[in-house]
Task: inverse folding
């Protein structure tokens, strides 16, 4: 600017308006391609600018490339009120010819300034979306919503599309000192700046809004600095609710004290009636079925819902009990429910359950005629962000949960039980078994129950190599086919 | 009882809703009214349309449908034994209020909750009806958050998810024991089951359907919850453990912590004092560390036998002071994961550092320009031309940082 006034600039570029991005872009491209240095250019907006200016024509065939990101962000920056913005953008463009990664260098002074200005424009855009307050004028056909707003930067054009997307079915006008936007439910138009007196001064709905503002405030949590950080005073004059702030702040301390000091009172008159009707004595703790005397799997499942035999219930969603008929052909015992089982409340429905189902299918075993359960009935895990990492149940937890497994076996009286994996084997046989070595074998317990040993299907899931995985799945299928033979034998 | 005007009801039912911390309107799928010709849009990022003098954002019309309630939770102003004034909106009143406020750009949408009257299904049914009318009759595309009554039926839950952007079920208190003691009629088991049901429904609907290959809209803003802090004796470690469990188990978008605030006509079972706001603030910071900074829940409070967060300094600084052997970290070489552990470096700043250092070596002053205050960062980093020397291990480091950052100036 200074240079321009002193007549030292070799090039003075007039722009048609404060947000004439197309004009800036065209001029900047020509200037840069013609090698005009940033210090030799002055940018001028609107009146006072010379009518005819000849910009240099770049050499034929010359090209200028900049990252797309720069173009987008420059378009935002052009809305800033600082008259220096055009020069800053041109300087950046100039530098980018030799420093294509300039935008990525957050420590560069030009970039810091660019980012600070960009942030200021974005914030202004956001605050306009937040703090515009429409007032209704006219009724029915003539209904129209009008707002007065004072933005810091030249953002009305850039922000108008947001209000169109949001208030499509409404006729509205947003008046500002430099530009006004109007929407008639079909077309967006702009007119020149207006005065605050052009906007309506009242709307009956404001009384309700003020009532809401007053009552949603909690005087026990007064934090005026936090409020002002996000809603600076400069916006207050156009926010109807801001008229309440002073009184609310002044009264907060005594209101909060009153809340604390007010002595607890006797229960409200209707309380006894409500209690008697909805919570008759004893209704809050459901009558517990004695698990020791359960006569069916259904009863046993009910009583297991409130199991507290080990601490695993604390983090789990629910007890995942066994599933199947009371007189199954075979009982499958897994380790513990996983993430999916914990959510669904059913055993073997997650990824390992899918393999299990498929293999059973191939071995021609009908899962509906089998009883499927786990050695431990609650999911044990370590939370890791949005995931839960399975943790192996310890011997104590397995031991505690044997109470349920024993009851399940006593009620279903199977001829054959399949132990899927080491935890199931530990629970069924009371000692650690080397599964990989003993898989495919049948161990007969002292009480005569036959236990078939194999791996847990989740073992297959954990094998990274595809060929090894397929081979392991085939071995598992062989085991289950063996089970099928033993079932019919 | 005298007939109340809408304004009187609004006063009672917004006062009754102010103890709910959440007012978020972000995270929903993008949507606008250009095709429908109605009103309303959600564009991902929520907008705070105003701020109350308590510093909390006002984004939504946050009200109860009614503050009559059959539950008697001692921390709640609406418990059945409370002598608070009662009111009940009609469905129509809530719909009209929402539209009236929205058209004047006061709000992003509606956060509707309710006391439970008669039965959970009946109450939930009315909440869903408000949302249905807004969507189907008023052509309203703004944000809707419905509080979900845990015991309601699956059909109502499905309908709620169809109309609402976010659903939430309050966990109430950090432990089941706390719930049993202070909210004797509420069942923690049912609350967990409801959250699980919501998670599976949200996951199921986010898969494209077989026929249309389109995703069905179902609570695209996910589910959230709130727990009250300081009404029972659970230490911060227990609270964070519960949060970690909730994020992992039910994929919550947010856990809100609400410092127990004294309520008018309070129950004698509760502490009568100002809400522990600083504690609430530190819990949010710790929650952030778990979600965005790669901290495991256990790490945040390791070496704090009382299981409480330091009120004087933020949890990341407290952790760094306990693990000085890991520092200083070289900002020009260290992995992103390690940079995230440096006190005073936020996730955005770390991203900028990682990007910038591909082109330039960073000096201390460069880092200073990127972050808010270098005082907290300086002892923990090595930069071009800067090494903290013995500063990292100085016994008075904590005091030095505290005095230079004036950490307590917040209140």
Result:
């Amino acid at each position: 600017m200074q240079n321009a006034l002193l007549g030292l600039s070799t090039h003075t570029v007039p722009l048609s308006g404060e947000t004439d991005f197309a004009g800036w872009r065209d001029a900047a491209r020509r200037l840069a391609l013609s090698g005009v240095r940033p210090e030799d250019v002055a940018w001028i907006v609107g009146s006072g600018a010379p009518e005819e200016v000849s910009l240099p024509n770049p050499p034929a065939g010359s090209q200028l490339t900049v990252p797309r990101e720069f173009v987008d962000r420059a378009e935002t920056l052009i809305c800033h009120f600082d008259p220096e913005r055009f020069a800053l953008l041109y300087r950046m463009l100039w530098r980018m010819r030799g420093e294509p990664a300039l935008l990525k260098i957050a420590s560069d002074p030009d970039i810091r300034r660019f980012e600070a200005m960009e942030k200021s424009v974005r914030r202004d855009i956001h605050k306009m979306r937040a703090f515009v307050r429409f007032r209704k004028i006219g009724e029915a056909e003539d209904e129209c919503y009008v707002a007065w707003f004072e933005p810091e930067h030249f953002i009305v054009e850039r922000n108008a599309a947001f209000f169109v997307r949001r208030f499509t079915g409404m006729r509205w006008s947003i008046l500002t000192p430099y530009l006004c936007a109007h929407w008639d439910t079909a077309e967006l138009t702009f007119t020149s700046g207006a005065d605050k007196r052009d906007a309506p001064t009242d709307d009956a709905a404001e009384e309700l809004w003020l009532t809401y503002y007053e009552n949603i405030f909690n005087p026990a949590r007064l934090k005026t600095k936090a409020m002002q950080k996000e809603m600076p005073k400069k916006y207050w004059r156009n926010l109807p609710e801001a008229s309440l702030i002073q009184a609310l702040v002044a009264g907060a301390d005594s209101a909060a004290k009153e809340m604390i000091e007010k002595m607890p009172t006797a229960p409200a008159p209707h309380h006894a009636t409500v209690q008697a009707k909805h919570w008759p004595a004893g209704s809050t703790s459901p009558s517990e079925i004695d698990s020791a005397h359960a006569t069916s799997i259904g009863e046993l499942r009910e009583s297991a819902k409130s199991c507290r035999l080990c601490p695993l219930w604390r983090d789990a969603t629910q007890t995942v009990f066994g599933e199947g008929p009371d007189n199954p052909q075979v009982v499958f015992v897994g380790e513990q429910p996983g993430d999916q089982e914990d959510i669904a409340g059913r055993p073997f429905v997650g990824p390992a359950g899918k393999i299990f189902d498929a293999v059973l299918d191939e071995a021609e075993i009908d899962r509906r005629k089998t009883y499927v359960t786990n050695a431990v009935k609650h999911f044990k895990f370590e939370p890791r962000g949005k995931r839960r990492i399975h943790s192996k149940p310890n011997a104590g937890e397995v031991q505690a949960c044997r109470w349920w497994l024993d009851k399940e076996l006593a009620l279903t009286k199977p001829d054959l039980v399949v132990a899927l994996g080491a935890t199931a084997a530990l629970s069924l046989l009371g000692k650690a078994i080397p599964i990989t070595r003993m898989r495919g074998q049948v161990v007969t317990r002292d009480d005569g129950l036959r236990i078939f040993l194999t791996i847990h299907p989740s073992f297959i899931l954990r094998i990274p190599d595809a060929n090894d995985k397929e081979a392991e799945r085939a071995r598992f299928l062989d085991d289950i086919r063996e089970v099928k033979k033993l079932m019919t034998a | 009882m005298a007939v109340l005007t809408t304004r009187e009801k609004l006063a009672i039912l917004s006062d009754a809703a102010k103890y709910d911390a959440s007012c978020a309107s972000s995270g929903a799928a993008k949507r606008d009214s250009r095709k429908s010709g109605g009103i309303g849009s959600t564009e991902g990022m929520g907008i705070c349309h105003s701020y109350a003098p308590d510093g909390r954002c006002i984004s939504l019309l946050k009200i109860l449908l009614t503050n009559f309630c059959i539950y008697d939770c001692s921390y709640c102003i609406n418990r059945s034994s409370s002598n608070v004034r009662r009111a009940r909106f009609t469905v129509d009143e809530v719909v009209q209020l929402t539209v009236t406020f929205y058209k004047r750009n006061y709000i992003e949408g509606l956060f509707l909750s309710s006391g439970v009257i008669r039965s959970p299904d009946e109450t939930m049914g009315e909440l869903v009806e408000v949302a249905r009318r807004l969507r189907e009759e008023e052509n309203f595309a703004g944000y809707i958050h419905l509080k979900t009554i845990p015991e309601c039926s699956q059909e109502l839950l499905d309908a709620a998810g169809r109309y609402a952007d976010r659903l939430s079920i309050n966990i109430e208190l950090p432990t089941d024991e706390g719930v049993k003691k202070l909210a004797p009629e509420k069942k923690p088991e049912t609350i967990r089951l409801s959250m699980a049901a919501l998670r599976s429904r949200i996951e199921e609907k986010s898969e494209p359907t077989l026929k249309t290959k389109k995703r069905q809209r179902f609570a695209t803003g996910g589910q959230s919850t709130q727990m009250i802090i300081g009404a029972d004796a659970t230490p911060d470690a227990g609270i964070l453990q519960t949060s970690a469990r909730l994020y992992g188990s039910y994929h919550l978008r947010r856990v809100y912590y609400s410092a127990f605030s004294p309520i008018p006509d309070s129950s004698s079972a509760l502490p009568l004092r100002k809400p522990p706001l600083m504690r609430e603030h530190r819990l949010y910071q710790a929650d952030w560390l778990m979600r965005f900074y790669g901290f495991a829940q256990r790490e945040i409070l390791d070496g704090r036998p009382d299981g409480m967060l330091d009120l004087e300094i933020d949890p990341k600084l407290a952790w760094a002071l306990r693990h000085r052997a890991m520092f200083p970290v070289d900002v020009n070489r260290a992995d992103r994961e390690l940079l995230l552990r440096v006190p005073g470096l936020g996730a955005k700043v770390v991203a900028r550092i990682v990007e910038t250092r591909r082109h330039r070596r960073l000096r201390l002053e460069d880092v200073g320009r990127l972050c808010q205050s270098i005082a907290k960062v300086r002892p923990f980093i090595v930069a071009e031309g800067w090494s903290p020397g013995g500063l990292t291990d100085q016994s008075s480091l904590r005091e030095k940082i505290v005095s230079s950052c004036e950490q307590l100036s917040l209140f």
In short: Chain B touches chain A through 96 residues (CB under 8 Å). The mean pLDDT of chain B is 91. The radius of gyration of chain B is 24 Å. The domain at 6-223 of chain B is CATH 3.20.20 (TIM Barrel).
